[in-house]
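Each letter names a residue; the fold follows as tokens. Both lines appear below:
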Amino acid sequence: MSTIPQSVYECRSLKKGGKMNGNRGLVKLGEDEFNLVLQYRDFNHINELAQEKGWSLESAWEYIVDMYILDEFLDVSRFEDVLGTFVRAPQGMQAHYDNSIYIPDVPYRITISWHSTLVRSGISVQVHAYAWNVYKIEYKNKYDQEINLMQFLRMVQCGDNYSSRLSRVDFTADYFDFPNPYNVSYIHPSFLFDFMQRRLYQVKNWKGNPSLALGAHHGDEGRINSFELGMRNRNTKLLIRFYDKKYEQEKKNGFRLQEAMEHNAWMRMECSYRKDYAYQITDILLSPSLKTEEDYIRFIAMMMTEKCRIYDNATDEVISITEELLNIANNPQINHLESGSAWDNDLRRSVQNHASGNSGLFSTLYKIRRVWSSITDADRLVFDKLFEIYRNKYVPLADSGEYPSVDKWLRNHGKETAKMTIDDLF
């Protein structure tokens, strides 16, 4: 395998950023990790196939996953042509999914996962940063052409049996040997964190309103090496992280260590878009408004400055690292992300109430486990019995319209809620 290349797009039109020993610094934009969700287009076909073959719904779904979705996706994505053959994992490799396939005996990770019974959760394709780097270099070697995430998304949309969209995507801006405007050192997360904490710098959105607050931070030997803007929780749509990429690669012996050693400093800004923001980004990447790689680079820059523009409170002007991105993003035709969501949270709250243990379900199962400790997995036996009652008694009544409140909720919120993945419920 060839040496892993820089998985970024170099921005050569730097206008400012200062100089340091004659070096103006360098900014590069790129993609990191992303998750893709595949949804089968015809859910009725699952029931029809089960009746036709005399199978259970689980068996019918497994057949459709193997023959209709995975077979087609692996073909159009060219994952196996480029990287190697996927094999079945002994258990699920992603949270909330109990089936996975992956490529064994490689240092990088792509996993494709699905649940045996939760059909509408879809199939989750998780592509880690190292794997995406390897895929791009080997794709170039095999087909003699570059590929980026925008092109990849368009390529995999040609599947007839499924639709696909991003549920997470991380965009990055790498600042190599980028001058610190206040002294002779290079820009570093510790400097930004200190100025934000002392309110010398302020984060605003594209409308000029105060935006993300300082979140978690981490350091070593008395120096902040990384910090976040925004809060980590299950409903987060955007989390921004600034960190010392050079330090990370040297400490972890990362796959871009050689690149890190070629520079005196390397700070990364990483924007992780999830859920509704990721869905909107999918729509924009598939739209005809983006035609070229230059359009795509501008789009990344614009997304990264949507919610995070760092202002110097003394001058009320953006600082150099933001200005560089704005220079690249100067394209008013790209749509802004909408913060609103039509999803009703009732279903999510119900699931989270059970998952937190507040509903009484977990305490009941635990009591059963302790009382009948001589019976292996007594709690699981009771849980399975409850599920059997639900499937055989409740579902037929619900299907026949015996629960009007459920029907009303499905009419009002079912379509929008279907845009969620199973992960969104937890």
User: Anything to note?
Assistant: The CA atoms of residues 45 and 60 lie 9 Å apart. The first helix runs from residue 44 to 53. The chain is about 40% helix and 20% strand. The two ends are 39 Å apart (CA to CA).
